[in-house]
Design goal:
14 helices; Rossmann fold; Histone, subunit A; alpha/beta; 6-stranded parallel beta sheet
Length: about 300
């Protein structure tokens, strides 16, 4: 963490309304910046599918860690931590407040608690990614079970990025992947107040479907076509909806099938987000009934100076 940490983090599943809440709070103040804690909003040219703040919103309220790398670049939590420290230092020097907003669980832990992160071994990673393409991610996960069963239990056997990363660290460092992370199962006291938005699961599922169809109407398919010409990295391709629409553009499925798959995967991802955040006893959960801004904004404002 920075010497001057943010006061509040707004947390929630995708489509929960956390960005709207943060915008409403920051727009009412003249000293508050929004710091994105989202592993996909960092990518330029990927705006519709990542629900990035609009140009008008970014002109109204200063946003950080949005549009900082090209889709062709890999992006990791270690890179995020580096950018975050620079951002928080800059905000502190300006005597402003930083409001953390996003749904990427590991990035939130890195922002709030700090994590001891392993190094990077690109050549090993590239070889493992090639092996995953041939053998399948489950095969690599079985290898991980033998090498580091604790790490293997913490991730889905089909989560290509995490499985490859774990094996990369084990091979590159000679240490267990589970030995890094500074204690993901520990939740120390923090100066940051975490406010979580929670919807009934059925309502959130409907909101997700509506969002996906709204994105399609806003030109999501065209955006993915443009991103595909930029040779997106493996991490960029994992963004919700992009992978599915790329499958359609490369004639592996119909457009309707791609849209349905996007809705399904986004709902599954929302469940995983909720499961991740639910483990953190420090989060103050607010159960939303109808209007996130009206119901959550006061809880945020009371923690800001």
């Amino acid at each position: 963490m920075s010497a001057s940490p943010p006061r509040v983090a707004v947390i929630g599943s995708t489509a929960s309304g956390k960005s709207s809440v943060a915008m409403a709070v920051a727009a009412e103040r003249d000293d508050t910046d929004i710091v994105s804690v989202d592993s996909m909003q960092v990518y330029r040219h990927m705006s519709i599918g990542t629900a990035k703040p609009t140009i008008e919103e970014q002109q109204s309220v200063r946003h950080h860690l949005v549009d900082i790398v090209e889709p062709s670049e890999e992006f990791t939590v270690a890179i995020f931590q580096h950018h975050l420290q620079q951002t928080l230092s800059s905000i502190a020097m300006s005597s402003r407040c930083g409001l953390l907003v996003g749904g990427t669980g590991l990035y939130h832990r890195a922002a709030i608690d700090g994590l001891e992160l392993a190094g990077s071994w690109p050549e090993i990673r590239q070889r493992l990614e090639a092996e995953a393409d041939v053998e399948g991610t489950r095969s690599l996960h079985r290898r991980l079970v033998e090498l580091d069963p604790i790490a293997a239990r913490r991730m889905e056997p089909t989560n290509n990025r995490r499985v490859v990363r774990a094996l990369e660290v084990i091979e590159g460092s000679g240490e267990l992947f589970s030995s890094f992370g500074g204690g993901l199962d520990e939740y120390p006291e923090s100066e940051v107040h975490q406010i979580g938005l929670r919807w009934p699961r059925g309502v959130l599922a409907t909101r997700i479907e509506q969002r996906v169809h709204r994105m399609m109407a806003d030109g999501f398919l065209h955006e993915v076509e443009q991103v595909l010409t930029l040779e997106p990295s493996r991490t960029a391709r994992q963004a919700l909806g992009y992978r599915e629409l790329i499958d359609h553009l490369e004639e592996r499925c119909s457009l309707d099938e791609a849209i349905d798959a996007t809705v399904t995967r986004t709902r599954q991802f929302a469940v995983k987000q909720e499961r991740w955040f639910r483990r953190d006893p420090r989060i103050e959960w607010i159960d939303i009934e109808s209007d996130p801004v009206v119901e959550v904004a006061p809880a945020i404002t009371k923690y800001l100076p």
